[in-house]
Structure formats: C-alpha cells, structure tokens
Amino acid sequence: MANPPTARTLMAGRHDLELVALGRTGDRGAFGELVRRHGSAVRALVRRMGADGATADDVAQDAFLSAFEQIAEFRGEGAFRTWVSRIAARLYARRWRREARAELLADGADDDPAAGVGADARIDLDDALGSLSEAERVCVSLCYGVGLSHAEAAHALNAPLGTVKSHVKRGLDKLRSRLSPDGDGGQRRQVGG
Predict the structure, then answer these.
(1) What's the CA gap between 146 and 89, in Å, rounded?
(2) Angle at the Cα of 136 (from 130 to 141), degrees rounded to 5?
(3) Is 165 helix (H, G, I), strand (E, B) or coil?
C-alpha cells in the first residue's frame, strides 16, 4: 500500500507561479517550497558579490522575508528566482554601502583584494570576481549576475550612473584579462575545475 502524499510532496510538484499564488493567500508551506528551491541560488549570488557565508545566509534570509511580505508585487513577468535575486542583490548592495562608509570613516580600507591568488593557481569565475575591487565586484554582479541595467544598479547603490558604468567596464576588462588563456603576463591558466 502506497503512502499518502505529504504536503511537501504536493508542493514540490507545483510550478513556481502556482506556489506564488498560494503564497499570496498566506500559505507558508508554498512559500517554504520556493525558499527550498531557490535559496541556494540566492545565497550563491550574494557570495559571488563578495559576501562571506554567514552574510550571504543573512542577506538571503532577509531577501526571502522581504519577498514574502511583498509577494503581491510579483507580477510573474519573469522567473521568481530572478525577482528574489534582485531583492537580495539590492539588500546586499545597501549593506555593502553601509560597510564601505564605515570603513572610509575608520580609514581602514584595503586596496589589494587580489592578494593571495598565485600565478599558477587554477581559477574560476568566483576567484576572478574576488580579484576585483569591492565596487567593481558589486557593480558587475548587479549588472551581469542579477541582470540589472546600469541605471537600476546605480539606483540600488545610490551612486552616479557614470561611476557604475566605469566600475562595470573596469571590472569586465579585468575579468577578460584574468580569464583569458594568456592572461596575467602570458602565463597560461586553466579556468574551472
């Protein structure tokens, strides 16, 4: 005799849009399934933006809480994952701005985030992103990781549009150089694992 399906099993078989519709009615189980499905991707995005593990967990949790509170605003024009990722990116950008201001006030900013990657080290995109300055990493992640326009990223960061464009351009140039087969002075690097 087969076991009856559990509430989680029933939720797991539903499409994201169905779960969002149930979430709008206050169904925490449906929203919990959305968190289960997309939580890892949101945390990974925030880590790529430069957060450590604990910070990424905190920002992802805050993003999903915010998404639950604002679920009526999700129009279904894009994927739920993209929508909650944008929320997370904006939350991390705000947090990053606050911390950057605090560092400037403390006058303890570190100008060499690329230290520690050896010339013969195998790198991947996350390592390459780690070699960018904080501002470049955040701007590139917002524009290419989350899909925000330069103007949207500038708004999220409360920064001038030209500044965001400059950080993105410099960041992309550095990434291209770093990830190219002859990047870093002609030494061949293997990308990935």
Answers:
(1) 7
(2) 75
(3) helix
| Integer Cα distance of 114 and 123 in angstroms | 12
- For 123, the 3-state DSSP assignment is strand
Q: What is the pLDDT of residue 69?
A: 93
Within a domain: residue 4?
no
pLDDT along the chain (193 residues), means of 10: 60 88 92 94 90 92 95 88 90 80 56 42 64 87 83 82 93 86 50 39
Confidence at residue 100, expressed as pLDDT on a 0 to 100 scale:
66
Helices of type H across the chain? 7-12, 16-24, 28-48, 53-69, 80-106, 125-130, 134-140, 150-157, 161-179
Q: Quick one: CA dihedral 168, 169, 174, 180, positive or negative?
A: positive
- Rounded to two decimals, the pTM is 0.60
Specify the length of the chain in residues: 193
> From CA 135, how far away is CA 167, in angstroms rounded?
7
| Tokens, residue 121 | 């080290």
End-of-domain residue from the set 79, 109, 139: 109
What range defines the domain where residue 30 resides? 9-109
